[in-house]
Every structure is written in C-alpha cells, then in structure tokens.
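Please describe our next protein:
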Amino acid sequence: MKQVGDMKLYDFDEFLDEEYGPVGTSERDEFERDVDECVSAYKLGEAIKKARISQNLTQEQLGEKVGVQKSQISRLERGRSISLGSMTRVFKAMGIPLTLEVGNIGKVSLW
C-alpha cells in the first residue's frame, strides 16, 4: 500500500489479498476458480462467434438452426448461459465436430 495524501493506493495483488484473502485460502481459491470459469466461457463464446461469422451466418440465422432466439445466441457469444448442451447444439448446427481431450482416455467425440 502506498499513501498519497489522504488516499491509500493498493496494487492489484494487495487488493485481492484484502478483498478475498491471501493465495491458498478457500475464499481466494473460489474467486480464482470463478475468474477462470468466466475467462473460459468468454473464449468459448468468441469461438462460437468466429465460427458463425466464418459461415456467414447472422445470430438470427444460427438461432433458427439451433432452435433458439437471436438473444440466446448473443448471450452465448458473450460467454453467458453456456452449458455443454447449448454448446453441443450450436456446434452441431454449424457442422463443427466437437472433440474433447480427456486425460488418459484420449480424445472423445461428442457426436
């Protein structure tokens, strides 16, 4: 922490320690997991958007193929409301095979 006049200035790590506790505590670990999940959802949403654009589809057209409204496609592309089921339906509607790397098992195709 740095004192500047009447203000206390914290760097980001100090803020996280103050707000969520030091690294290794349950609150901080939960916060870090939540952040990781949000970043992953955002990246997945971006992948959906890029795939849709590469196929020259509007959100409305993709929604029709999936059977949802344009607003749901918008939420997915922003990393909101992403579930395995919705992700599967979207990629399947675009004809994109979805394969997961599962530890010692290897690659597993979802369809």
